[in-house]
Design a protein that fits this description.
- The complex is a heterodimer of chains A (about 675) and B (about 240).
- With about 675 residues, chain A is of the alpha/beta class.
- Among the domains of chain A are: about 5-225, 3-Layer(aba) Sandwich (Rossmann fold); about 585-670, no CATH class.
- Chain A is globular.
- By secondary structure, chain B is of the alpha+beta class.
- Chain B folds into two domains: about 1-105, Alpha-Beta Plaits, CATH 3.30.70; about 115-225, Alpha-Beta Plaits.
- Helices cover about 20% and strands about 35% of the residues of chain B.
- Chain B has helices at about 20-30, 80-90, 110-115, 130-140, 190-200, 205-210; strands at about 1-10, 50, 60-70, 95-100, 115-125, 145-150, 155-160, 165-170, 175-185, 210-220, 225.
- In chain B, a hairpin with an 8-residue loop joins strand 8 and strand 9.
- The chains are: A alpha/beta (about 675), B alpha+beta (about 240).
């Protein structure tokens, strides 16, 4: 493998933001290639600015480079201007670390965080000079790998990739490396590619789409079945039991140019059990595993020292729920960084309550431009349907706290097009926003509230996976309702996500293998960077669906029934399908389900199935707010008796998941 | 204590922008644990100010910045050692060559003070003869009109007054020709790539400018042009006065 730098360098004088392509970040590892080593190219299929901060890629890059038998580099999607020059001058896709050609690596692995980047994946494979369809690849071409949240329904890309990794990558990348190392040692003889895929498919968490046959019954999917007896019928995700054993990244990357999250990030826990029914991340990353508070502190101190950042973001799906949060924040300020400044801490994914805002205020340093909350739905009824059990009092308390502490803008995230949503629910969004502005005006005349409205896309492995997504027209009508109503509300601004892009996301999210050809057509028509509104055109998608003879209505807008074979049924995040179905029925009955970190287990399937447990330092919920129980805990912080008992004595697998789920559903009725 | 520093910016990092350079410095100062003075106010910023922007893609032997140390740094801080500490924490390609103490208020800011820069441009596809001829011709004309774009605005300007000197730079290992140009920075100034567009209108200036290197930045004192901090290597330990 040789460096392409001499051919890349002259192109960089002609492109925007050339610093995206030079590597050289603080903390970057010098990859040491060598004979016999398995080389991985880790790719984020979006721009450098978006991809560089990705923690998954940084973690896997370090773990692989620490191994004696592996080496890893990184790459990102080149922007249009560079891609045009690369294609004109026959320069293939390259790594940013040492500018090696992507096609020279043994494995070329993509992290997929969102569906609209699928066409970028195909484009990057093509830019690497590799056949876009896996069936057309040569024996020694890189094995194309997918990971990340979207890997839980990789079917739209199944014909384009060789391997899919379900769940967390820390351990499984080592298993894959070993099999590929043996394959390389054996000389990668012609025709051995299928054999190695079959071997790799025996690794838990690894799905090799080519090892499965897919049968259809008209538009419906009949079955996805393994071609061989030694290939698993269902692939189960990988989960790291103890985050404390994986204190990565140890050498966090500080880029030389501006990126989206330009601060140190320290992951404080994985998983979330709040059980928001629309949230795929919360469902597929269970159970909750907290990092020990001491380790969080050490990682913050080391990370700040190594990068020179003055801001750290404590990342997770709901950081205020981290039981060591106060321990950590009190220890940081002022951090021992040897300067007169203080370190500011940002808490993304703020829980909606006054306690959380108080915490954010203590640690935010000087930057108080805006705070973001996600009530997600405009009425308590609908919030029960989606199981986002925050009360109006929680929201108003949070907003009051924010405006009284010097913030003057709040941003509220809402979804529209949710199951059972009526116009009264939709208009409730404006009422909430208007009331928040009124609260803010008591403190500052500049108080304003921005409503950010996104169209709901039902996601695989969630209780809403059976729901028919709202049509483009219906979403537009709802956005219009909110816009008109808010036009009369002073201080309320509305931003919305383009419903056309929501439709495309819907095609990809629950698509089966037939959608792959649609992706390829969209890509061939020039449709890359589809999550960038300036490059998105729904027409390309509609034309591609029509050309493949596929119905948008069938894939996107149709409600599914209990017995339908779903394209991801052979892939498991550990959740019992009947638990999800029951939770879907509970949703339609407007019943909430409490957080199982602090209430008895309702057996979603994950802990019992994998023999792992929640790792939470505190047996009680952190103080403040209603904690998603719908109860008022905000005054005095007392925790109701029902929440105190700690589950943990069990866990025999119940005969049916239905029983325990029914029990917990009735529990939730009692508290709501 | 107020300091003025001179440093290089060479190699791959030339593709980072002027703004990026400021960010590299902020992080390097924190990593080196050198206590800086901070501005007052709701969002305190470290007291650092940067000289003339270097175009993205250009290299330099003569970049400058000013910074103010916090009182706790003490009056006896070893400036040569500071240069070493900063160089160690900055990305590869930066080397701090000079650190000098600066009299508190008598020195104007870098941005106002600099009147000209010297550049060495490595030229692709131009032979020695053509270069000599073009230099002669350019210096002989009374005015030189150039169509250029600044911040999205197109304009036609006479750039001849901004060309203070042109010469053929001494040969190096690189067989290509090198143009040495001293260009004024006051007014709208003249960028190296704009100079090439004016000198070689038939060629693509971006392809022609294979390398762009800033070698000196000039200020004026008593009618004389001099470097901000003359390029005497720090290692000689010669006391260096700040201009």
């Amino acid at each position: 493998m040789t460096s392409l730098w001499a051919r890349v360098e002259p192109l960089l004088a002609r492109v925007q933001k050339p610093a995206r392509y030079i590597g050289c970040e603080d903390g970057a590892i010098t990859p040491r290639h060598g004979p016999g080593k398995v080389s991985w190219l880790l790719a984020y299929p979006d721009t450098y600015e978006i991809g560089l901060p990705n923690q998954g890629l940084q973690i896997l890059n370090e773990i692989l480079n620490e191994r004696d038998d592996a080496v890893a580099e990184r790459t990102y999607a080149p922007w249009h201007d560079l891609e045009t020059l690369m294609r004109e001058r026959n320069v293939p896709l390259f790594s940013v670390d040492t500018h090696r050609a992507a096609g020279d690596f043994d494995l070329f692995a993509f992290s997929l965080a969102a569906e609209l980047v699928y066409t970028n994946v195909i484009n990057m494979i093509d830019l690497a000079g590799v056949a876009v369809r896996s069936a057309h690849r040569e024996t020694t071409d890189p094995l194309i790998v997918l990971g990340g949240h979207c890997a839980f329904n990789p079917e739209p890309l199944a014909d384009y990739v060789d391997l899919v990794v379900l769940g967390e990558g820390e351990e499984v990348i080592g298993d894959i490396t070993e099999v590929v190392r043996e394959w390389k040692a054996s000389g990668q003889t012609p025709g051995s590619r299928e054999g190695v895929l079959r071997e790799l498919s025996k690794i838990p968490g690894v799905y090799a789409p080519a090892m499965y046959d897919v049968e259809y019954d008209g538009p419906a999917l009949r079955a996805v079945t393994p071609k061989y007896a030694d290939v698993p019928a269902v692939v189960h995700k990988r989960t790291v039991a103890d985050l404390g054993q994986w204190p990565y990244p140890k050498s966090p990357l500080a880029p030389l140019t501006e990126v989206v999250h330009d601060r140190l990030a320290v992951e404080v826990f994985r998983g979330c059990t709040r059980g928001c029914r629309f949230c795929q991340a919360g469902m597929i990353t269970r159970p909750v595993r907290e990092r020990p508070a001491d380790q969080v502190r050490t990682m913050i101190q080391n990370g700040l020292r190594r990068t020179g950042y003055d801001e750290v973001s404590l990342t997770s799906l709901s950081t205020a729920d981290f039981s060591g949060i106060e321990q950590v924040t009190q220890a940081i300020n002022p951090a021992g960084c040897g300067t007169s400044e203080t370190i500011s801490i940002s808490l993304p994914s703020l829980r909606v309550d006054a306690f959380t805002v108080g915490l954010a205020g203590q640690v935010a340093g000087g930057r108080r431009s805006g705070l973001t909350f996600a009530p997600e739905a405009g009425s308590w009824r609908l919030r029960q349907v989606i199981n986002k059990l925050i009360t109006e009092e929680d929201l108003y308390g949070a907003v009051e706290s924010a405006f009284s502490q010097g913030w003057h803008r709040a941003k509220l995230y809402f979804l529209t097009g949710l199951p059972t949503e009526t116009d009264a629910d939709t208009l409730g969004i404006v009422d909430l926003a208007r009331n928040c502005v009124q609260i803010g005006r008591k403190h500052t005349n500049r108080a304003s509230v921005t409503v950010s409205l996104g169209g709901f896309v039902p996601k695989p492995h969630t209780p809403f996976q059976w729901f028919g997504q709202n049509t483009n027209d219906e979403l537009r009508r709802k956005v219009q309702l909110v816009r008109e109503a808010s036009g009369r509300a002073k201080g309320v601004n509305v931003k919305w996500h383009d419903p056309s892009a929501t439709l495309a996301e819907g095609i990809s999210a629950r698509g089966d293998r037939r959608i792959g050809a649609v992706m390829e057509r969209v890509w061939r028509a020039g449709g890359i960077f589809q999550e960038w509104s300036e490059f998105f055109r729904l027409g390309r998608w509609e034309e591609a669906m029509a050309a493949e003879g596929l119905s948008i209505d069938w894939y996107v807008h149709r409600h599914r029934d209990e017995h339908e074979v779903l394209p991801w049924d052979h892939l498991s995040a550990g959740l019992h399908k009947d638990f999800l179905w029951l939770d879907w029925k509970e949703a339609l009955a407007e019943h909430g389900l409490p957080d199982c970190r602090w209430t008895p287990c309702y057996d979603c399937g994950v802990c019992t199935g994998y023999g792992i447990e929640h790792i939470v330092a505190s047996p009680v919920p952190p103080a403040g707010g209603s904690q998603g129980t719908g109860q008022d805990l905000s005054r005095g912080g007392e925790v109701p008796v029902e929440l105190l008992p700690r589950r943990r004595e069990h866990v025999p697998v119940p005969a049916t998941a239905t029983e325990s789920a029914t029990e917990s559903a009735s529990d939730s009725e009692a508290v709501s | 204590m107020k300091l003025r520093l001179r440093h290089t910016k060479l190699g791959k990092i030339r593709f980072t922008s002027h703004r990026d350079t400021a960010r590299h410095w902020e992080r390097a100062v924190r990593k080196a644990q050198v206590p800086l003075a901070y501005s007052a106010g709701f969002t305190p910023r470290p007291r650092m100010s940067f000289g003339l922007a270097l175009p993205t893609g250009a290299e330099s032997l003569a970049e400058y910045l000013d910074m103010e140390l916090a009182p706790e740094a003490g009056p006896d801080i070893d400036l040569a050692d500071l240069a070493v500490r900063f160089s160690a924490e900055l990305p590869v390609g930066y080397e701090v060559t000079h650190v000098v103490a600066r009299d508190a208020d008598s020195v104007p800011s870098l941005q106002e003070d600099v009147v000209a820069c010297t550049w060495v441009l490595t030229l692709e596809g131009i032979d020695a003869h053509e270069l000599r001829d073009t230099i002669e011709r350019t210096l002989a004309v009374p005015s030189l009109m150039v169509d250029r774009e600044r911040k999205g605005q197109r304009s036609t300007d006479d750039v001849r007054p901004a060309i203070l000197d042109l010469s053929v730079a001494p040969a190096t290992d690189d067989p290509r020709q090198h143009l040495c140009a001293m260009l004024a920075t006051n007014g709208r100034g003249l960028r190296p790539v704009e100079l090439l567009a004016a000198m070689f209108p038939a060629l693509d200036p971006v392809d022609t400018a294979a390398k762009v290197l800033r070698t000196q930045q000039w200020i004026e004192r008593d009618g004389m042009r001099r470097e901000i901090i003359p390029a005497v290597p720090f290692a000689t330990r010669t006391p260096v006065e700040c201009a």
